[in-house]
Amino acid sequence: LAPGAYLVRITLPAGFAPVTPLEQPVLLGDGSAVNVSFGLQPLSTIAGQVFADLNGDGVRQAQEPGLGGVAVALYRAGPAGIFDPATDVLVAEMSSVGDGTYHFLDQPVNSYAVRMRVLAGYTPTMPSQVVVNLAPFWAAAANFGLQPLNTTVATTFEDLNGNGMQDVGEPPLAGLQVVI
Asked: Are 78 and 84 in contact, with CB atoms under 8 Å apart?
């Protein structure tokens, strides 16, 4: 190239976010060489599911349906670098679809708080905020369980030590009638 001022530009490839400008000016002198660097960061996905936790145990069973229409929001930590609802920065928000799934595609590597807004008539059976650390080309998951209000769950088990709580190793008892 002849000596002079140039603008060096790259086209952003799919699946990456720029961490430096996509255009950089350079001044090329007579008999000189100039190196131009462009920083790109891989994008990743955060996804999950909101489900009706019918038995309230915080674990999704096959018979527990997904819940659509639940608001889910993605946040970055605020200026202090810690997650605080008063200062966090909203990145994106959406509602879960009919089967309860949601996803935030093409997010840069970072730590995020995923927050679910509890539906009226339900109570959460697991935290309504999950912090995920997103790595390059990775998918992070944040799932949420909601139990319908006015629900009673009965568990029958053999209380081997007589403490009134089901401890590890105390088997469930099946076939018993529970009456409310």
From this structure: yes
**Distances 111 to 49, 130, 136, 138, 140 between C-alpha atoms, Å:** 19, 11, 12, 13, 10
d(CA 104, CA 83): 19
Residue 99 pairs in a beta bridge with none
Helix H, strand E, coil C: the string for 9-45 is ECCCCCCEEECCCCEEEEEECCCCCCCCCCCEEEEEE
Q: What whole-number distance in Å separates Cα of residue 80 and Cα of residue 93?
A: 22
Task: Extract the tokens encoding 167.
Answer: 């401890």
Of the candidates 127, 107, 116, the residue with the CA atom closest to the CA atom of residue 69? 116
Tokens of 142: 């944040």
> What pLDDT band is residue 178 in, cutting at 50, 70 and 90?
confident
Classified as helix, coil or strand, 171 is coil
The radius of gyration computed from the CA coordinates of the chain, to the nearest angstrom, equals: 25
* Residue-level pLDDT at 112: 94
CB 32 within 8 A of CB 119: no
Q: Any idea of the CA torsion for 22, 105, 72, 61, to the nearest 10 degrees?
A: -160
Of 105, 39, 118, 107, the closest CA to residue 76 belongs to 107
Q: Quick one: 62 exposed, middle or buried, by C-beta within 10 A (0-12, 13-18, 19+)?
A: exposed
The model's pTM: 0.64
